[in-house]
Specification:
about 425 residues; alpha+beta; five-stranded mixed β-sheet; four-stranded mixed β-sheet; 10 helices; 15 strands; about 25% helix
């Protein structure tokens, strides 16, 4: 099959759509595992080993995958037993629907889980941020799914089904669910009570979700760490409802791999910036020793919503601000970078983005990373707080090319 990859801007929803359309599949789970992995590797232009390491060896990525994979395991086990599962997902209070029962799946909060007691968090992830802000932080019981399904363990596979009467209520409002809450699962009527959702004669002894040999898995490191098959992990990532895994985590760490690979080609070592700078060292992503002087670099990806695809007038945009804080000049609470925080901004374009921008200027583009290294003093300053950077930087794609990290530019910047 002569495959033409069209991933749009590279978001997970666009990759999933391409897979479904190309292989005529309604469900990602129906597509061959190797095809799914090869598609991801093509979009990121990483090797399978690099991708496996991005997940297993970066705790922010691993935690996110671990938090979402239970849903895939649950679905996998039911479908292995010929039981239909409807995925709802996203930010909905309902994750899955089985036999017309709405389910909210939860993994245990390990800080409060010990022995026979499991703890689960059920508060809302959007809206009010705490009880102090509003009691709306907690779900009302009558707006919650029919059952909360809490994970106990993968091997042996144990879950607990809690109906509305078994879910603890908040002491200040009996109509709202307490979060977090604890439940003693051993001996509980809801333990592996699949009959509560109309499922009978489920064979849980097969443990088909657990690999027989980790070394034969496509993602051996991650598979061993989660004790789950690679296929389930891939289906978790290729789930539009779990878009944060890809769009807000994996892509960022893939950028780091692309940059490290390029620097390594020229024998350039990146350093931890924090111990090299007494103040605000954490505001740079890495440092490089250039002729005895440390230069600091910040890495950013593209802000797709602020880009403009318009032929030779195409614009590349990136956000140059911290994720928390306010737009002010406070020494510790401002989200605006100081001009002195780093000497260079490295703007990384994912392979699908490169293809889009190159096509806009009439070029047949390969899927590849493009890295641009822009001196901080050439970035736009904040209109009022002149010693800080503006929160959004925009560049003509054509003009951006002069900053591309090709051999000559690398030798110039790093004085090779």
């Amino acid at each position: 099959m002569n495959v033409i990859y069209k991933f749009g801007t590279g978001r997970i929803g666009e990759i999933v759509k391409w897979l479904r359309d190309t292989y005529s599949a309604d469900d990602i789970a129906d597509i061959d595992e190797e095809i799914k992995l090869n598609t991801i590797l093509t979009a990121l232009q990483l090797t399978s080993g690099e991708f496996d390491s991005v997940i297993a060896n970066n705790s922010p990525v691993f935690r996110t995958v671990k938090g979402h994979v239970f849903e895939s395991v649950f679905k996998y086990i039911l479908e292995e037993n010929s039981i239909d599962v409807d995925h709802i997902g996203g930010d909905n209070v309902v994750d899955l629907r089985v036999n017309k029962f709405d389910l909210q799946l939860k993994t245990p909060n390990m800080a409060g889980t010990k022995g026979d007691v499991a703890q689960y968090k059920t508060h809302k992830t959007h809206g009010a941020k705490s009880e102090q802000e509003s009691m709306d932080y907690y779900y009302k019981i009558d707006e919650f799914a029919t059952f909360l399904v809490g994970l106990i363990s993968y091997e042996p596979f144990q879950v607990i089904f809690l109906n509305h009467s078994e879910i603890p209520r908040h002491p200040k409002d009996v109509n709202r669910i307490q979060s977090p809450f604890k439940v003693t699962w051993r001996g509980h009527h809801g333990l592996n009570a699949f009959e509560r959702i109309g499922v009978k004669d489920l064979d849980l002894d097969k443990n088909t979700h657990v690999p027989e040999d980790f070394s034969k898995e496509l993602l051996p490191l991650t598979s061993a760490k989660l004790n789950l098959k690679s296929e389930i992990i891939l289906d978790t990532i290729l789930n539009e409802g779990n878009f944060r895994i890809w769009d807000m985590s994996i892509r960022g760490f893939a950028r780091e791999v692309a940059i490290d690979n390029l620097l390594s080609e020229f024998g350039i070592s990146s350093l931890n910036p924090v111990p090299l700078k007494t103040e605000r060292g954490d505001k740079a992503d890495f440092a490089v020793n250039i002729n005895g002087s440390h230069k600091f670099f910040q890495v950013k990806g593209v802000s797709t919503n602020n880009c403009k695809f318009n032929g030779g007038n195409s614009i590349v945009a990136t956000e140059t601000q911290l994720t928390r804080g306010r737009v002010n000049d406070h020494p510790t609470q401002s989200r605006l970078y100081l001009k002195s925080d780093f000497e260079y901004l490295i703007l990384a374009l994912d392979p699908p983005q490169v293809a889009l921008f190159e096509n806009e200027i009439g070029n047949d583009a390969n899927l590849e990373w493009k890295l641009f290294c822009i001196p901080t003093d050439e970035l736009t300053a904040h209109s009022v707080i002149k010693h800080r950077l503006n929160s959004l930087q925009k560049f003509s794609y054509q003009d951006l090319k002069k900053y591309e990290l090709k051999e000559a530019k690398i030798k110039e910047i790093f004085d090779l």
